[in-house]
């Protein structure tokens, strides 16, 4: 896969009250890509603890992510590579596990707000964190409605 891999923070912008960030994240995700089980776990944790989503809302949000993006498994190989990347690139363990999953999924670009824009990992993966990376992005009406998840400035996350 020559595509994109998304870190948790980028996906959480999908349900952000910040319309500009939500629009940018939506434009990126609509083009497809991959995430890992770790990303799903981190998103679930933030949705429940910080965004106060109940279990039904959290499951609906995660289901929409799984429907839109390929999900890379966490394996012992991912773990071993992640430990190696953490040491070689001075990444946190969690960031290194995300980079390892992206590398093993064959992705060329990792969208993350946590790592340095333009950073190259093993000459196969490049970190991107600028919205201008793909050129002009559509700025549609805020109110993301992907697979039943709706977000807006004035209302909590709901499912249809």
Condensed summary:
It is built from 6 helices and 9 strands; from the N terminus they run E-H-H-E-H-H-E-H-H-E-E-E-E-E-E.
Structure explained in plain terms:
The structure is a single chain. By secondary structure, this protein is of the alpha/beta class. The chain has one domain: 3-Layer(aba) Sandwich (Rossmann fold). Helix content is about 45%, strand content about 15%. The protein is built from six helices and nine strands, in the order βααβααβααββββββ. A four-stranded mixed sheet has the order 1-4-6-5. A three-stranded antiparallel sheet has the order 7-8-9. Helix 3 packs antiparallel against helix 4 and helix 5 packs across helix 6. The longest helix has 14 residues. It is globular and about 40 Å long. The protein starts with a strand and ends with a strand. About 35% of the residues are buried.
Which architecture per CATH?
Answer: 3-Layer(aba) Sandwich
Average pLDDT, rounded to a whole number, is: 82
Q: How many helical stretches?
A: 6
Q: What fold name goes in the CATH topology slot? A: Rossmann fold
Shape: globular
Q: Assign the CATH class.
A: Alpha Beta
Number of strands: 9
Q: Largest beta sheet, briefly? A: 4 strands, mixed
Provide the structure class: alpha/beta
Oligomer kind: single chain
The portion of residues forming beta strands comes to 15-25%
Strand order in the largest sheet: 1-4-6-5
- For the record, the count of structural domains works out to 1
Determine the CATH superfamily. Answer: 5'-nuclease
Percent of residues in helices comes to 40-55%
Terminal-residue CA separation: 33 Å
**Using only CA atoms, what is the Rg?**
15 Å
What series of H and E elements makes up the topology? EHHEHHEHHEEEEEE
Q: Low-confidence spans: pLDDT under 50, at least 5 residues? A: 131-160
């Amino acid at each position: 896969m020559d595509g994109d891999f998304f870190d948790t923070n980028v996906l959480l912008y999908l349900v952000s009250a910040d319309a500009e960030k939500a629009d940018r994240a939506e434009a990126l995700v609509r083009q497809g890509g991959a995430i890992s089980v770790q990303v799903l776990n981190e998103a679930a944790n933030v949705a429940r603890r910080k965004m106060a989503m109940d279990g039904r809302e959290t499951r609906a949000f995660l289901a929409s992510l799984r429907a839109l993006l390929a999900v890379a498994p966490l394996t012992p190989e991912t773990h071993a590579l992640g430990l190696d990347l953490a040491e070689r690139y001075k990444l946190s363990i969690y960031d290194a596990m995300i980079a390892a999953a992206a590398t093993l999924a064959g992705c060329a670009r990792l969208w993350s707000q946590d790592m340095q824009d333009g950073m190259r990992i093993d000459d196969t993966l490049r970190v991107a964190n600028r919205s201008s990376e793909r050129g002009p992005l559509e700025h549609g009406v805020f109110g993301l409605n992907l697979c039943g998840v709706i977000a807006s400035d004035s209302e909590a996350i709901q499912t249809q």
